Amino acid sequence: MLTSHPAPPAMFQLQNFINGQFVPPVNGRYLDNVEPATGQVYSQIPDSDAADVAQAVAAAQAAFPAWRALSAEKRGRLLVRIAELIERDLERLAQAESQDNGKPVALARTVDIPRAASNFAFFGTGIGHFSSESHFQEGQSLNYTVRHPLGVVGCISPWNLPLYLFTWKIAPALAAGNCVVAKPSEITPATAYWLGELCQEAGLPAGVLNIVHGTGPGAGQAIVEHPAIKAISFTGGTKTGEHIARTAAPMFKKLSLELGGKNPNLIFADCDLAAAVSTSIQSSFANQGQICLCGSRIFIERPIYEQFKELFLARVAGLTVGDPQVETSRQGALVSEAHLNKVLSYIELARQEGGTLLTGGQRVQVPGRCAEGFFLQPTVFEGLAPDCRTNREEIFGPVVTLTPFDTEEEALSWANGTDYGLSATVWTTDLNRAHRVAHQLHAGVVWINTWLLRDLRTPFGGMKNSGVGREGGLEALRFFTEPRTSASSFSGPYLSLLALRQLPQKASETEPGG
């Protein structure tokens, strides 16, 4: 549970990044920041509220005219410079991400931090190719559409991929010419703090990016409610997304909500079994299952069910749960004690619903410095009904279910049988089936014989309760801009010439006879 109190002198304090400077919270209050692997407080963050958000918005408003007026090329160069600094400091940021989130440092080093750099580089260069539109109406007018930045926008990111998803929102917003008030998760604030340092070094103008730490009800709600913030980009739980929509919609703010998932993994008998097993291990347990795209419901065609299960369980047994700072660890700690208890409650629910526990299901005691950490065995169940709560509700942890199916129609019905529609994976060597099934899945992203393959140019987002809107590529730049169409009619000499062209040229052309 988060507690708010003055920090002891020896405790490292993160600060808000407002108007280009690191500043303490207005109210002087701080939150404990716990290292998941040890269960111990190791730093403190501002417990910011509406007063801090007001300061950040004022700084952003003051910076907006000059930032908007800066050419796309110059804005892009600054973003590329930030990308270069992230790459330079990759190891420091990876260590910080691992300590703050509990994920293996190897994962942070190879996925999270490189992707954060790619986000800035992609949008820093991409803004130079973000073209306007024109429409020529023959003989009447020229219409052209220019997209303008919204002004001050709010970006609220989750704890599972802290810097990765933080930059995924901030980079396109800045590239498009907006100024940003951003809130990282209070559970994983460290790399967002260090990003402020890199922005200073890169020469990002003061007030263009403001980072306010704090809780959702404190800082997050103040961002959503502030009338000067024109758009909210949020990634997180569906219930929180519902609350944001209820608050922001009457204020006519633009909303991009990337929410939860309960993603199916469909494995047909004609698949490349070795590849399906290997990748399904990743899609089940990467980041301790704490990725909204993890495939937590694995449906296997009956002829290969037992073979897949045997190979899959053998691979699960090789997943080393341990100190995330140790290079050989493949499973780190869950992000918090509260989240660990939530996942354990779903394991108990699965038992109550009649599931057979095939492996895992227990908290792991890691010796040494991690004795009090929040570790959990990778867990696999079978024998659960496709429509039970375990198979419909988002667990967001290292828990998957195995279910055999007999027909393609059955697999599709079960795959689509939740309120979520974020992603899905299909394993088959039949090209016709691959595209046929992908077309019928209710998911914003479908992977065929792969997982987590992301081209940053493509739209990303979910259907149903998995969200509203799309991120990535031109979709992100469109979200953070407002189109304005200008039209000019043809007049003067051109219009007179047009009128002459419409006059009869010869009597014989308009009258019968000679």
UniProtKB/TrEMBL annotation:
Gene3D superfamilies: Aldehyde Dehydrogenase, Chain A, domain 1, Aldehyde Dehydrogenase, Chain A, domain 2. Residues 29-485 form the Aldehyde dehydrogenase domain. One of its GO terms (molecular function) is aldehyde dehydrogenase [NAD(P)+] activity. The active site is at residue 258. InterPro entries: Ald_DH/histidinol_DH, Ald_DH_C, Ald_DH_CS_CYS, Ald_DH_CS_GLU, Ald_DH_N, Aldehyde_DH_dom. The keyword NAD applies. Keywords: NAD, Oxidoreductase. CDD domains: ALDH_F8_HMSADH. PROSITE patterns: ALDEHYDE_DEHYDR_CYS, ALDEHYDE_DEHYDR_GLU. It holds the Pfam family Aldedh. Belongs to the aldehyde dehydrogenase family. PANTHER family: 2-AMINOMUCONIC SEMIALDEHYDE DEHYDROGENASE (PTHR43720). This is Aldehyde dehydrogenase. It comes from Hymenobacter cellulosilyticus. The lineage of its organism: Bacteria, Pseudomonadati, Bacteroidota, Cytophagia, Cytophagales.
